[in-house]
Specification:
By secondary structure, the protein is α/β, with parallel strands linked by helices. The protein is built from eleven helices and nine strands. The protein has helices at 8-27, 38-41, 45-58, 60-76, 96-104, 123-139, 187-198, 218-239, 245-263, 276-285, 295-307; strands spanning 82-87, 113-120, 144-150, 168-174, 203-209, 288-290, 313-318, 323-328, 331-341. Strands 1, 2, 3, 4, 5, 6, 7, 8 and 9 form a nine-stranded mixed β-sheet that branches. Helix 4 packs antiparallel against helix 11 (295-307) and helix 8 runs antiparallel to helix 9 (245-263). The two termini are 35 Å apart. This is GRAS domain family. Keywords: Transcription, Transcription regulation. InterPro entries: TF_GRAS (IPR005202).
Length: 354
């Protein structure tokens, strides 16, 4: 009965069933073969870009992540003349127009220079993003420079980032950190934290799914995926008609995550989502301290939710304001937080939370 065109639970079961079939085919390739449409197995960058733009239009999820973190960045960059932001997962740069507008309208003195370093694996996508953002900055009369770093996250080195001493530097990690956990020894994640620390950032802002999809036991990951993505798909029903091709395109991005969580193991399993408690332990073990999320960010998040006129979304603080979580009914979806290097360097290795 499960189908990508049915109710939210039908749709998530359809994608989980596909993920299970792929897992079986990977484990017993001589006995089974699975040949779903290629667009489902490996959506193209154009498909992903279109889906992200659609999601940004119909759901508060992207705007909650971007606008809330931008508010935290503005606080950290207040009064600074030369600003440098490193975005380790820039994609189409949807986060930055609102920040540019806020920086340009800052009184009494907007920054004299803003530099954005974008990291990604597609040279063409980075060039397109850079051109688009440069035109936007020009329209705000903002002195702007875009620097593209074309490489995999794990291969980025400090010299590639063109860090300058006179700049106030911020690091942006939206849906990035969990991909560094693919190395189960913790080395890849520690290397990323070491790289971030070596830039001497004023602030590091982080957004991650509020989920525990990094268990070694795949059955546990499957069960947790069912409840988490059923809530995501339920929220899509509130935004788009059931027969909408746009909804299917958006949900295929989440379906790709489900396939990775359930069907893949080892280095191939990159969707290693952790709870905020798990991230707090990893960051603190890595020598970072939590800066907290304040009332300004909470007000920004509430304003975003009011734009979508849906009472099923809500916000919940983590601890004493350590992070801020977007909820759908009683299901946590995403958490944003802010960090800075501590006074004492972290340990030489990071263990993944249990």
């Amino acid at each position: 009965m499960a189908t990508p065109q049915g109710t939210p639970i039908h749709r998530v079961v359809a994608y989980c069933t596909e993920a299970l079939a792929l897992r079986v085919a990977r484990l017993r390739p001589r006995m089974f073969s699975v040949a779903p449409p290629r667009s489902l197995l490996d959506p193209t960058e154009d498909d992903n870009a279109t889906a992200l733009r659609l999601l940004d239009c119909v759901s508060p999820i992207p705007k909650f992540l971007h606008f809330t973190l931008n508010e935290r960045l503005l606080k950290a960059l207040e009064g600074r003349d030369r600003v440098h932001i490193i975005d380790f997962n820039i994609k189409q740069g949807l986060q930055w127009p609102s920040l540019f507008q806020s920086l340009a309208s800052r009184r009494p003195n907007p920054p004299s220079h803003v530099r954005l370093t974008g990291v990604g694996e597609s040279r063409q996508d980075l060039q397109d993003t850079g051109i688009r953002l440069a035109r936007l900055a020009e329209s705000f009369n903002l002195a702007f420079e875009f620097h593209a770093v074309v490489d995999r996250l794990e291969d980025v080195r400090l010299w590639m980032l063109h860090v300058k001493r006179e700049e106030c530097l911020a690091v942006n990690c939206v849906l990035t950190m969990h991909k560094a956990l693919h190395d189960e020894s913790g080395k890849a994640f520690m290397d990323l934290l070491d790289l971030i620390r070596s830039t001497h950032p004023e602030i590091v802002v982080v957004a991650e799914p509020e989920a525990k999809h990094n268990e070694p036991n795949w059955e546990t990951r499957l069960a947790r995926s069912l409840s988490y993505y059923a809530a995501i798909f339920d929220s899509m029903d509130d935004a788009l008609p059931k027969d909408s091709q746009a909804r299917i395109k958006v949900e295929e991005v989440f379906a790709k995550e489900i396939r990775n969580i359930v069907a893949c193991e080892g280095d191939e399993r990159t969707e290693r989502h952790e709870s905020f408690d798990g991230w707090s332990k990893l960051m603190e073990d890595g020598g970072f301290r939590c800066l907290g999320i304040g009332e300004r960010e909470m007000l920004q998040g509430r304003m975003i939710l009011r734009m979508y006129s849906c009472e099923k979304y809500s916000l919940e603080k983590q601890g004493e304001g350590d992070g801020l979580t977007l909820m759908w009914l009683d299901q946590p979806l995403y958490t944003v937080s802010a960090w800075a290097p501590g006074d004492v360097a972290g340990s030489s290795s990071v263990s993944q939370p249990s």
